[in-house]
Design goal:
The protein is of the alpha+beta class. The chain has nine helices and 17 strands.
Length: 279
Amino acid sequence: MKIHTIEPGTFKLDGGATFGVVPKSMWQKVYPADENNLCMFALRNLLVVAGDKLILIDTGIGNKQEEKFYTHYHRSGHHSIVKALEEKGFTPDQVTDVLLTHLHFDHVGDAVKRETDGSLSPTFKNATYHASQRQWEWANHPNQRERASFLKDNFLPLQEAGVLNFVTDNMELFPGIEVRQYHGHTDGLMVPFIQYNGKTLVYTSDLLAMAAHIPASWVCGYDTRPLISFEERNSFLQEACEKGYYLVFQHDYYTECCTLQQTERGIKQGESFKLEEVL
């Protein structure tokens, strides 16, 4: 097995929304904001090469929406998952599987591409796309608060093309890759636990968007069920600390990967790494 980070660009979100009820006087010490109170977010996707499988985990924001939509997010970079893969020496036709942690626009935007005639089709024509059944139902019938995060151009064409596999429970989706579902950020968020050379790597997605969210009570303002998020994150952090998991952050611009440590004041961030240092 080999694992590559695939990074097509960055974007920005409001710091208050990023850290919810946590006062800025606290969070800005560990995660800076610019003069407009915007925090830099990475779009760090993973490509897992395992035997004859090339498994892409999430696809970033993409480029197919109208420019007015993107002006809210202050993007930098090319935001093409295809270009980002090619920079690592892979082509989209080689990808056999796409694991979608959830269907928010910043995770699934490049799962579908717009053709020159305006039609929409899967970006990875030879791939099976894996999404949780609960998230699919949630995304297609969203509550008013979360509706803006689900752009149906990003996922309905996958169903129309017949390339979806729905995951209904926690399971080993591929040899050495277990997925677990969480429901605080959004219903049916899938988090991959990857076994690699005796280590457990957890691609935290929006269960923990960044290392600054490691205190379980620092719940993101975008989470739909903050009390459930707190319980899920607290349980996960306890397990991850006890078992020595390596956390891989999808959105942390400054910290790619870290361990955890138990302190007198609770679980804190341990050592930080580039993922390639862990591998």
